[in-house]
Amino acid sequence: MEWLALSIVFVATIYFAIHYPAFRRTLIFVAVGSIGLAVTGAAYLWHDNWRTEERRQNASKLISSQQIQIEGLALSLGPYSTKLTGTVVNKSEFELSELAIKVLVYDCPRISFDDLIPSESRPEAGSADTKPWERYKKAQEDSHCGVVGEGVARASSINVPKGQKRAFEEYVSLPRLPDMKEWSWSYSVEETIAKY
After folding, report:
1. Which of 153, 155, 154 is CA-nearest to residue 185?
2. Which of 2, 45, 114, 170 is least surrounded by CB atoms within 10 angstroms?
């Protein structure tokens, strides 16, 4: 039904444009005006985005990661989601608007040299016997220690005034984590953006 109505409007527009010069001038005026408005709108949006990005870049330099303290940070690994919770303390002179925390998950069963090689079979200092050390090195390599997951938690509207603290709860995307027997994790503050 809509196609029929659009077809009739299209055919009528072509007919009137061919037979009536005033209608043709009006169509040209409307087309030029529409193109002008579209170009003006696109230029305004581009300029606004550019200014916003410039303000954001400047705001990211106002607060250093050393001025942000994280208290009680906890990582909960689940089958469908990974949650990072804690409290942010803003020790800077500016209001903290956004925060990004990088999370690394390690799967590293701890193998100590003492557990692997008893003291009575250890080589003496300066000895040429390197077999116990080679066994320890091979055991470490076989344990596949290392980073098995990496993600960034972004608190995009945390809004912590200077000198205050605020609790947060963000989800971290850690895709395809393997089955882990003994895991640990670490974090680092990657990005701090002041209110702009």
Report:
1. 153
2. 2
